[in-house]
Amino acid sequence: MGEYRSRLPRTRREVEHALDRLVRENRFTISVFFPLNGAVLLVASAMGWLPEPLAFNAFLILLGTLVMRSPLIVGVLPLVTRRAALGVGALTAYAYAIEYTGITTGWPYGWFEYGVELGPTVAGVPIGLPVFFIPLVMNAYLLCLLLLGDRARHTATRLGVVIATVLAMDVVLDPGAVALGFWKYYRLGPDALLFYGVPLSNYAGWVVSATIAVVVLDWAFDRDALLARLDRTEFMLDDLVSFVILWGGINLWFGNGVPVLVAGLFGIGLLRTERFDSELLKLPRSLPWRS
């Protein structure tokens, strides 16, 4: 027992190194195996092929989301200063507040309601909401830093491109979520313009949400430190790989052509930044079918 305890990480740096190693050694399982299985289970749930309690199991949805988010969380963890923690805390409060406003007033996204349990709720808002929302914005921010290069130093360019990228992520996410029945929009007028079942008011709302979230994250984190961490941490954008596989696959099943195309563009962006590499696709020896 004493020898086991001596191997446990004792400092923050040792914990960070241990988590880095854990994610690095399990990249395929986390970022390919989990989203592929997630897409199959979610589609099977929506089609009525899974019995209770497996169909849209809230625990499995939250667990799968946390696992897929782990490369981003572990990648960002060493950069969480007091300022960054304050920014993330503010975004967490903001996410709850704007979601509650949305389901009670219809602003800014339009009237909607949840059709699937996404875990425990408070006042109708899933407590896991920040895990769904904040990483989307951070993934977009990191991808744009890499793609923009030196142009990212220009504030207006950086913020504008990231906000547009977050909106593009919702072009993939919302149609897939509506097709699954995660949430649905109502009180739609006869002349309402819909994009694969999603009212355009939703995207206007996302412009508001994305702008606030991107500005806060841009203030909270040291951009040079993020770029340095990205340079030496090959798995830091693996959560975006999961996003492409999961939501691209779900949209493909339901025939949502434009969201599939946009998901493919994110895949191209990952290829250009050399984040979809041979190490990611390497099967870990721990998988059951590996000898």
From TrEMBL:
Keyword set includes Zinc: no
Xref: InterPro entries: BABR_hydratase, CruF, CruF-like
Pfam families registered for this protein in UniProt: Caroten_synth
Keywords: Membrane, Transmembrane, Transmembrane helix
Transmembrane segments: 28-50, 56-77, 84-107, 127-148, 160-183, 203-221, 241-271
Domain of life: Archaea
Cited NCBIfam families: crt_membr_arch, CruF_Halo
Name the UniProt record assigns to this protein: Carotenoid biosynthesis protein
